[in-house]
């Protein structure tokens, strides 16, 4: 007996993964599964938004738990001091708009997962961080969808 996973679910799951996010899910949905650009955008953005809430809510408690051991405490102390010294003091203008733009740039390591880690490290509050990251996901989805449609138009 083989299990067939529906294409819409594969698209949502691909968008939820840190390696692909909307950058991989939209081309997959349009190029492989034949979804129209609006469907591909909606499925991919929805999937990419799914991990944001758990990540923003649980990165703090997980780091607190890991800090209970000596190695974890050393690592997170180093990480927080380094991050805050290097980025907060040197880039005081870094804020929520910059976080949204960072997430929106469709390059490797610039998606929602990394945006959640940055929001956590910089101490952003939940709702403002969620709004900035979600805005970045919406923009990244538009950029990737437009790029895929443009490439399809040029090639075919």
Short structural summary:
This protein is an all-alpha fold. The protein is built from eight helices and no strands.
Secondary-structure blueprint of this entry?
Elements: H1 7-16, H2 21-32, H3 37-49, H4 52-66, H5 70-88, H6 96-104, H7 112-122, H8 126-155
Helix pairs in contact: 1-2, 1-3, 2-3, 2-8, 3-8, 4-7, 4-8, 6-7, 6-8, 7-8
Key traits:
156 residues; mainly alpha; 8 helices; globular
Structural account:
The protein is mostly helical and 156 residues long. The protein has one domain. Helices cover 76% and strands 0% of the residues. It contains 8 helices and no strands. Helix 1 runs antiparallel to helix 2 and helix 1 crosses helix 3. The radius of gyration is 18 Å and the shape is globular. The mean pLDDT is 90.
- Could you give the distance between the termini? 38 Å
Structure class? mainly alpha
Query: Beta-sheet strand percentage?
Result: under 5%
Helix content: over 70%
Radius of gyration: 18 Å
Overall 3D form: globular
Could you describe the largest sheet, including whether it forms a barrel?
A: none
Number of H- or I-type helical stretches: 8
Order of helices and strands: HHHHHHHH
Low-confidence stretches: none
Q: What is the mean predicted local confidence, pLDDT?
A: 90
The beta-strand count equals 0
How many structural domains? 1
């Amino acid at each position: 007996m083989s299990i067939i996973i529906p294409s819409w679910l594969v698209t949502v799951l691909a968008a939820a993964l840190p390696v692909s996010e909307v950058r991989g899910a939209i081309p997959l949905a349009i190029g492989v599964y034949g979804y129209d650009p609006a469907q591909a955008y909606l499925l991919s953005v929805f999937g990419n938004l799914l991990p944001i809430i758990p990540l923003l809510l649980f990165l703090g408690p997980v780091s607190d738990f890991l800090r209970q051991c000596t190695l974890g405490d050393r690592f997170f102390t180093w990480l927080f001091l380094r991050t805050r010294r290097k980025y907060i003091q040197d880039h005081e203008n870094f804020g929520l708009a910059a976080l949204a733009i960072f997430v929106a740039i469709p390059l490797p390591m610039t998606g929602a997962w990394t945006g959640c880690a940055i929001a956590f490290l910089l101490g952003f509050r939940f709702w403002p961080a969620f709004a900035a990251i979600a805005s970045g996901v919406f923009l990244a989805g538009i950029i990737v969808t437009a790029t895929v449609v443009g490439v399809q138009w040029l090639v075919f």
